[in-house]
Design brief:
The protein has 171 residues and is mostly helical. The protein is built from 4 helices and no strands. 16% of the residues are buried.
């Protein structure tokens, strides 16, 4: 339960999160280009518009684990901030084990057939002129669940360290 185990696991989501930051910039640039082309030149391509959707999906799905790593996720907090670090660790550990990890497992396992069917037919856009990579985008669903699950496991390890190293806190 030491940093030698936590750091390599977290480095995966750190690397992906930093890459996604650049992808959000690309998404802004492509969105700007779509708007300029449409309204200034009366031009547009379905594939270009779908590229924005793909980038948004990647940022949202793959960014969830990165956001969780930095506690940037939504937390309904009424009492949590006033708790000791040990009590917070118990709450986080319990939430990860009872809710987050089972949800990640459900999404991962539940999406496998869906993704396999998409790969079997090499699914592409339903729009004429759309992107031919829908099967690749759908592959991100179980990948996102896996990355979030990995982050939840590293969080469990960190919370376990807090619980074991702060036994004097009983607040």
């Amino acid at each position: 339960m030491h940093a030698w185990l936590i750091r390599p696991l977290e480095s995966i989501n750190e690397l992906i999160g930093r890459a996604l930051a650049w992808l959000t910039l690309a998404m802004v640039i492509v969105t700007f280009a779509v708007v300029v082309l449409r309204y200034a030149f009366d031009l547009g391509w379905i594939a270009m518009q779908e590229t924005i959707n793909y980038m948004h999906a990647l940022v949202f799905m793959l960014g969830a684990a990165y956001a969780f790593k930095y506690s940037a996720h939504v937390r309904v907090d009424i009492f949590y901030n006033s708790f000791s670090s040990r009590k917070k660790a118990w709450i986080d550990l319990t939430g990860n084990i009872l809710f987050l990890l089972p949800t990640c497992g459900f999404i991962f396992l539940g999406s496998l057939d869906y993704v396999a069917d998409s790969w079997r037919i090499l699914e592409s856009s339903q729009e004429t002129g759309g992107l031919p990579f829908a099967f690749l985008l759908k592959t991100v669903i179980p990948l996102a669940a896996l990355l979030l699950g990995i982050q939840a496991i590293t969080d469990c390890l960190k919370q376990g360290l807090v619980i074991l190293t702060h036994p004097e806190e009983h607040r």
